[in-house]
Amino acid sequence: MGLSHLLLPIALLGAGRVALAQVVSTGQPSGTDAATTRASAVYDGRARKTTVAIPRFDTTVVIDGQLDEAVWRDAPLLTGFSQYRPVDGRPADDSTQVLVWYGPDAIYFGVRAYEAHGPVVRATLADRDNIDSDDRIQILLDTYDDHRRALLFAVNPLGVQEDGVWSDGFSAAAGGASTGGRLDATIDLNPDYVYQSRGRVTDWGYEIEVRIPFKSLRYQSGARQDWGLQVLRTVQHTGHEDTWAPAFRANASFLIQSGTLAGLTDMHRGLVMDVTPELTSKLDGAPRATGYGYRGATDLGGTLRWGVTPNLSAVATAHPDFSQVEADVGQVTANQRFALFFPEKRPFFLEGLEQYDTPNRLIYTRRVVQPDAGAKLTGKIGSTSIAYLGAVDARDEVTGQLPVYNMLRLRRDVGPSSTAGLVYTDRVEGNAYNRVFGGDTHLVWNKVWFTQVQVVGAWTSDERGSRTGALWDVVLADRTGRRYGNHYEINAISPDFETQSGFVNRTGIVTGTAFNRWSWYGAPGALVEQVTTFQRLQGVWRYGDFGRLRGAIEGGYDGSWQANLRGGWQLSADVTNSIQRFDSSAYVGYGVDVGADTVPFVMPHGLYNLWGGSVGVTTPNRVVTATATLGYSAAPIFAEAAEGRQLSLNAEVLWRPTQSLRIDALWTHQTIDRARDGSRFATADIPRLKVEYQLTRAIFFRYVGQYFAQDQSALRDPRTGAPIVLDSAAAAAAGNPVMHELRSDVLFSYRPTPGTVFLLGYGATLSEPEAFRFRDMSRESDGFFLKMSYLFRM
To answer: Is a pLDDT exceeding 90 seen at residue 229?
Structure first.
């Protein structure tokens, strides 16, 4: 190794420390403190003073993380935070002060977060949207004041940003991934907004400064407006989440408990026109008839975003880059019967993705594979939210046709927190089509209860003929109480229901679910802060059997317990008892080799009293954070219609040795043994390592390595142990579950603002005959990736 190879990482580490030194400070709060702020402009959340008369000042400030300009002395002060999680209704342990005002073209927030427990503030120089392990401030702006959705702007103590959309309650995202493990909200971090933020760590806590341009927001079109406002503070050393406006769990809506910014007028967005040209170049390698070879392609494309009105945006794209720069996290497939869901990660789909949410995922944007062109229209007119997406996909290699997608979602506000919606999708490919149309309603009543109904029809025509199907889903009652909650639901999907624009991976069943939740809260300062148990009963029937009162084909009991301990520790335990009856149609083409002959496969009637359990622990967010779950259960082996014994382990360790370096190690392990004789049916091991080095807020390097090792033995008859033989159709349906693949991805990223990006990456997939031998490896594919785009904001 040459001297230059040694000097480069040293230089990068030094540059990172210099960047951090510029945002770490000691001393007293800059500008003024609460004592010198006008008493008439203090809004104490615990005193229920949550309607803020926000002032307008015709001035600007330098966003540097220091609240030292004169305008901050005249800004209203928001204080009096309350604890929300794990125990609601208590005064926050740490003091937080928020200052807010607006100018002609932006709204400004200044925050002083005091920390009385010493130097325990957690802050890293992370990539955007990667600060969940840090202390942070979250600003929720409900710009329509409708208590359904809010724009989320989060900042850690170093000014690193996280943004997205907070939607009340839990919904099925249209391909997006939710974060936070919450039951009170679906948080979509895919959208990226242009705003400015800076922060600095001090000896009394930390201080941040935020400017959010009106050009980056969608809001009402009225001359005078009120916006909903909630400010959350996450404190990692205690594991607490505090809110400015008091929020209580005994409410079916979190956002309806927000405060208000009253009297915003004379806001100037100007022309909202974003043009983002992009260039993507790829060089993909793969085995070919003449040996391993490469094929390159360079694409020019672009995206145009137009703010038609303050509350309506249109986006058009041509030849967009719809690639991902990081592989999906591996999931075990050896004993899966149905398709697995993977979240959307492709740039064009991400803005406004939350507006396509529907119960039962009737819109799933990853159905669009590689479109030549696309267009979107999202926003809100009056009390009706509108989301439309149309795309022309790449030519199908089999049919030679260009599939055309249309996805439309309408949702109207009803009363303070209820909604009614419609959804329509179609996919047309030549003469074949799939059309889905349905309606749904979500009714909140008596503050802590809601009822939800969805009814959908599907019409499909292709080479197999024409057919229709139905889906109906009824949440009879859901109660969100502080100490007690429940949920009772029936979901039915007919055998011929099909959505080629959504994600419904199982049809022909009716599922009934009933669960009850109880929560207990410890006294202030107690070791155990909260204990929650969920007790669930679930049954699954064949669609035609449910009305005839026939027995369930699967389901059972699931009891889980979760405990939050002082200091941020979390413990969990789970006990299950289930049944499983098998579907004879899944075993057509099966036979049993008895030596001299092949006899028909006889399917067992079913499996009963399949007991199982698991335990888990999560450590507090510190320099090293770990989580582990260990489970053991009796489980069905679907490929053999047999009973098995399943051992599963999931472990993750996140190590942050410096504020710029993050090392994330994940291991998924699973074994399945046959209950009949203890022989091994399947083994899966998926270790994954992600290493990120954040040189500056705009520049990072990342390596992701994942080994997918999955083995499965030959199928055996559950009655005799004799080999099972499959005809050609059954063998094709079963596929090849054996896989020993190593995937590595290296990425350099420069992203000074959303939309402006330079990415350079390389990825390779290697395979080998035996797992973890690391010899006789063959290259399955590899490729180089370059992307450049620039956001021109008019």
So the answer is: yes
Q: Residue 199 is encoded by which pair of tokens?
A: 């922060």
Question: 400: Cβ–Cβ under 8 A, 6 or more apart, which residues?
Answer: none
704-722 per-position pLDDT tens digit:
999 999 999 999 999 999 9
Query: Residue 256: which of 535, 390, 444 has the closest Cα?
Result: 444
Q: How far apart are CA 521 and CA 562, in angstroms?
A: 12
What is the tens place of the pLDDT at every residue in 55-94? Answer: 999 999 999 999 999 999 999 999 999 999 999 999 999 9
Q: Distance between CA 175 and CA 374 in Å, rounded?
A: 17
User: Given the DSSP bridges, would you call strands 77-79 and 42-44 parallel, antiparallel or unpaired?
Assistant: parallel
Contact residues for 240 (Cβ-Cβ < 8 A; gap 6+): 83, 85, 86, 92, 93, 234
CA-to-CA distance for 324 and 316, rounded, in angstroms?
20
**Dihedral over Cα of 360, 365, 366, 369: its sign:** positive
- Are 229 and 107 a contacting pair, CB within 8 Å? no
Written as one string, the DSSP assignment of 396-439 is: PTTT----EEEEEEEEEEETTTEEEEEEEEEEEETTEEEEEEEE
In tens, the pLDDT along 543-552 reads 999 888 888 9
pLDDT band at 438 (very low <50, low <70, confident <90, very high): very high
- Predicted confidence (pLDDT) per residue in 674-703, tens digit: 999 999 999 999 999 999 999 999 999 999
DSSP 452-495: EEEEEEEEEEETTEEEEEEEEEEEEEEEE-SSEEEEEEEEEE-T
Between CA 93 and CA 410 the distance in angstroms is 42
Mean residue pLDDT of the chain comes to: 88
Tens digits of residue pLDDT in 171-182: 544 544 445 557
Can you tell me the distance from the alpha carbon of 333 to that of 711, in angstroms, rounded to the nearest whole number? 10
DSSP-assigned beta bridge partners for residue 475: 452, 489
Annotate 229-242 with b (16+ C-beta within 10 A) or e (fewer).
bbbbbbbbbbbbbb
Task: Return all residues near 618 (Cβ < 8 A) that are at least 6 apart.
Answer: 569, 570, 625, 626, 627
Strands 77-79 and 418-429: unpaired
Residue identified by tokens 């024409």 is 466
pLDDT of residue 733: 72
Q: For strand 739-753 and strand 699-712, is the pairing parallel, antiparallel, or unpaired?
A: antiparallel
Choose among 464, 549, 536: nearest CA to 498.
464
747-788 pLDDT, tens digit per residue, is 999 999 888 989 898 999 999 999 999 988 999 999 998 989
Give backbone dihedrals phi and psi of 76, rounded to 5 degrees, phi first.
-60, 145
The answer to whether 88 and 249 have CB atoms below 8 angstroms apart is yes
Residue pair 451/418 in contact (Cβ under 8 Å)? The answer is no
Residue 280 contacts by C-beta under 8 Å, 6 or more apart in sequence?
Answer: 298, 299, 301, 321, 323, 785, 786, 787
Q: Give yes or no for a contact between 613 and 632, defined as CB atoms under 8 angstroms apart.
A: yes
> What's the CA gap between 637 and 627, in Å, rounded?
28
| This prediction's pTM | 0.84
Q: Answer for the pair 173, 343: CB distance below 8 angstroms, yes or no.
A: yes
Whether residue 492 contacts residue 471, with contact meaning beta carbons closer than 8 Å, is answered with yes
- Whether residue 651 contacts residue 672, with contact meaning beta carbons closer than 8 Å, is answered with no
Taking the mean position of all CA atoms in its chain, how far away is CA 150?
A: 16
Tokens read off for 378: 């999202």
What confidence tier does 250 reach under pLDDT thresholds 50, 70, 90? Answer: confident
